[in-house]
Amino acid sequence: MEAAQRKAQHRPFCFSVKGHVKMLRLVFGFLAAVVCLADGALIYRKLLFNPSGPYQKKPVREKVVL
After folding, report:
1. Which residues, 6+ apart, have CB-to-CB distance to 39 below 8 Å?
2. Averaged pLDDT, 32-41
3. Alpha carbon distance 22, 13 (integer Å)
4. Core vs surface per residue 19-44: b (16+ CB within 10 A) or e
5. CA-to-CA distance for 39 and 41, rounded, in angstroms?
6. Where are the alpha helices (DSSP H) in the chain?
7. With contact defined as beta carbons under 8 Å apart, do 7 and 13 qualify?
8. Where are the transmembrane segments (predicted)?
9. Quick one: average pLDDT of 36-60?
10. Would 19 disulfide with which of 11, 13, 29, 46, CB 3.0-4.6 Å?
């Protein structure tokens, strides 16, 4: 009978294995969201200030008409 009463009591969520896994998942999800937003902001900034890319535009050579 005492074993049944002990089993009825459960550990708090934060001390259970499932609780740790869920908190880690939440932390990594939050970290992934922050990294995605930072990556998007950096790409937007790069395209805004340098839309043509890293290469410089060279003037087109004019055809020589004789």
Report:
1. none
2. 97
3. 10
4. eeeeeeeeeeeeeeeeeeeeeeeeee
5. 5
6. 2-8, 17-49
7. no
8. 26-44
9. 79
10. 13
